[in-house]
Amino acid sequence: MLVIFFCIIFLILLVSWAKVNPFLAFLIVSIVAGLCLGIPLNKINASVQKGLGDTLGSLAIIICLGAMLGKLVANSGAAQKISEVLVSAFGIKYIQLALVAAAFIIGIPLFYGIGFVLMVPLIFSVVYKYKLPAVYIGLPMIAALSVTHGFLPPHPSPSALVVMFHANMGVTLLYGLCIAIPAIILAGPVFSLFLKKIPSEPLATFRAEELPADKVPGAANSFFTALLPVILLAVTAAIPFINGINLQTQKIVAFVGDPSIVMLIALLVGTVTLGIKQGKTLNQLGNTYAEAIKDISLILLIIGGSGAFKQVLTDSGVSNEIASGLQSFNLQPLFLGWLIAAIIRVSLGSATVAGLTAAGIVAPLLIANPAINPNLMVLSIGAGSLAFSHVNDSGFWLFKEYFNLTLKDTFLSWSIMESLVAVIGLAGVLILNLFV
User: Fold this and answer.
1) Number of domains the chain is built from
2) Which of 93, 249, 280, 431 has the fewest CB atoms lying closer than 10 Å?
3) Is residue 99 part of a domain?
4) What is the pLDDT of residues 237-255, one digit of tens each?
5) What is the Cα–Cα distance from 188 to 190, expressed in whole angstroms?
6) Is residue 371, in this structure, part of any structural domain at all?
7) Which of 29, 5, 12 is nearest to 349 (CA)?
8) Which tens digit of pLDDT belongs to each residue from 379-436?
9) Can you count the helices (H) and strands (E) in the chain?
């Protein structure tokens, strides 16, 4: 237990203090942990390679295809169209809610950074046009993006946790939606009511050019393509519960409902609806997809590194000791998972690293106690991984610089919002646990 504790501290120091790339930090700590835990020298490399390969083998397809679809939704103007339709439907009085809805829909297929950069120009155009407080209007949108990033597949961390805990992607998504909506409302529109007086002059430099109306796809096309992964996952998760479904149909549904197949279908459909039908050539689409892979390559490596660390713990035999040690705390397992992720998040700054590291520590608990709902554990750790973002988190500085805020006001807005999302998410998980 002491070795694991010091290895985690070492990982935190490498990433936060020494500024070592998280992937390299995971590899270094994995090797150090293997040596300290008594794994033979000739087997440490095998453990690292197996953990990295097993983790990426099941996730690389999902994450890469998700990134490609997200890039396509952004570059085609579909996300812009979704935003415009929602703003038009809600009107000026409820424009904040329109932005929240737009960010939630866009945030499901898009990675957080892409969604942020995509939505910020819309926020600023609304702020300048209607003379509204920037933080009051923008923070709820950011909350929606953050929640989808931490709670909902096909984002990297929740997708990885689903695989690690042998949870069901569709069920996790459905539970996640039940928790995400109240978390967004309370940490977004409700909390922002207290932020109207925060001074903010968004920099005009960050106001991006919008695509002309004749270059933007239709509303139905945009909504359908962006939400197709969610639709497919939800439908295939629900069909097995229908009475009278024969075995062959169940097999087909299981095949189509596999996250890799879901993302492949969605990307193929998007290639036609948002690509070819919008006048894009296959060469242009290929370049778009190549850029998407570049955007998430480091995320893939970090996930692989976390898998290597987890495998070293497993092969050393210390995982059973960790499970026994954690159980001795006599804490509710879902709360314990949340707490570990929250501590690592505060220390490291990265929600993805926090979630994946916590999962490696908590995984033995699920093996020792089959009564723990793995879908809820995914969401609990996802919520904890969003806790109190501060100066060691790139998202903190992204929000601060785009909205041109002081450090104090960034803490009062962004950091508190992230903490609220984490606490509300935990509460939602514990409530759901009473009924499922």
Assistant:
1) 1
2) 93
3) yes
4) 778 777 777 888 888 888 9
5) 6
6) yes
7) 12
8) 999 999 999 888 768 788 888 878 888 888 999 999 999 999 999 999 999 999 999 8
9) 21, 0
